Amino acid sequence: MKLAFSTLGVPGLPVPEVLALATAHGYHGVELRAHPEEPVRPGLSPAERAGTAALFKEAGVEVLSVAGYARVAAPGADAPVLTEIRDLLQLAHDLGAPFVRVFPGADPDRPHEESDAIAARRLGTAAEDAAALGVRILLETHDSHRTGADAIRILGPVGHRQVGALWDVMHTWLGGEQPSDTYAALAPHLGYVQVKDIASADDTTPLPLGSGVLPLTECVDVLCRRGWDGWLCWEYEARWYGSAAPLGGLLGAGRDHLLRLLDEAA
What we know:
By secondary structure, the chain is an alpha/beta fold. It has 9 helices and 8 strands.
């Protein structure tokens, strides 16, 4: 498997410094948080996009994904959500990224059947744009749809190869789902896996990999036993937790921990 980290762990860091961290610590790729406060975002000019892509190519580091914030199951009109997704798809295409991340974001007060249908309709429409650009949209296990069983209620009806799943191991764990069950639900759709660690369900401050309670060993074991060979991406949520230790000093040990888990599972 290939290893990546998310720029959520180094908020606002310029791209050359992100790439220096990746190359210094042996990561194959980077998940780019696409937010207005970040250096890489949908508003970049064509020249800025080309320059960013060139920096990644020169460093020998891949852009794994453009991690957007479109909420595909949110109430309201389809058009603004589709516009947001299309902007993310274009950015991913211009950077050479194979994936775009979206969230569910359903209204908890609405029947889930209604929210699922909204999300499936939007993703089915956006799938045609994704196919034209050669980018895949991944629905993250998150917020209103935090388990694989939740996500498949949307992905199943879409039934398009350009729409898949992003497995966030924290959210499936918080949802009470076992790694083997998550994999069984998402396997036909799985794009990549976000790993992380936390102290408890009540304290989700990011920790170094292997020092918390998340079932990383079990997740990696399931993936290896099933022959999955995609990406593991460390999403260290430093942006939301000012007390978290800086990610830069943890990347080397985090890589070693993931390699050790992979070796033990092999």
